[in-house]
Amino acid sequence: MLRARSRKPGELWLVIVDASASTRRHGALAQAKGLLADTFEQAYRQRARLALLHATGTQARWLWQGQKASSQLQEWLEQLGAGGGTPLIEALQQAREWLDKRQRQQSGERQRLLVLTDGRLRDWPELQPLNCPTLLVDIEGGAVRLGRARKLAQELDAEYRPISDLASKAR
User: Fold this and answer.
1) Of 15, 78, 90, 108, which is most buried by a Cβ count within 10 Å?
2) How, if at all, do strands 159-162 and 11-18 pair?
3) Domain range holding 71?
4) Alpha-carbon gap, residue 169 to 63, rounded angstroms
5) Do residues 16 and 116 lie in contact, with contact meaning Cβ atoms separated by under 8 Å?
């Protein structure tokens, strides 16, 4: 007997990865890669859809837009390096526009945003929270920390977590 597909609303996890040159310091990007690998695995197990924005160099680039997790994400993660500037604000603006459009098309879909950044931005315009629960993971490492990721999280009305808190829970 054929069964109708479930009409239960799905979940979408949007991930923004800051892979600017500053994230190479103190193993920040390596830690972020571990967290990303766990996130991709969880998305696969929970059948959540993923969207992935890569903020590096001079512009933010979409790598994945609302698809199911697959081995291609792991391949990208293995190749992930850091360099150039931090187009994080551009990535956040792109994410807002994309999520707003997606919410109109996929009403009922539960959306979440995960931002991984060291917050090493010079300055930025005033930001408005996105229309979904947001977690900002601070990957800034080393003895001298600027603490800008915490300020960014406050402006985005995001939950703030240093990556060290998440890494210790994973063990």
Assistant:
1) 15
2) unpaired
3) 17-170
4) 28
5) yes
Using an 8 Å Cβ cutoff, are 15 and 79 in contact?
A: no
Handedness of CA 128, 129, 130, 136 (dihedral sign): positive
Q: Measured between alpha carbons, how far is 71 from 74 in angstroms, rounded to an integer?
A: 5
Nearest to 55 by CA among 95, 98, 99, 102: 95
- Over the stretch 103-152, which tens digit does the pLDDT of each residue have? 999 888 999 999 999 888 878 888 899 999 999 999 887 666 677 899 99
Give the position of tokens 């929270």: 129
Cβ neighbours around 103 below 10 Å, total: 15
Residue 49, token pair as written in the block: 């859809």
Q: What CA–CA distances, in Å, run from 135 to 8, 25, 81, 145?
A: 24, 22, 22, 20
Residue 4 lies in a domain: no
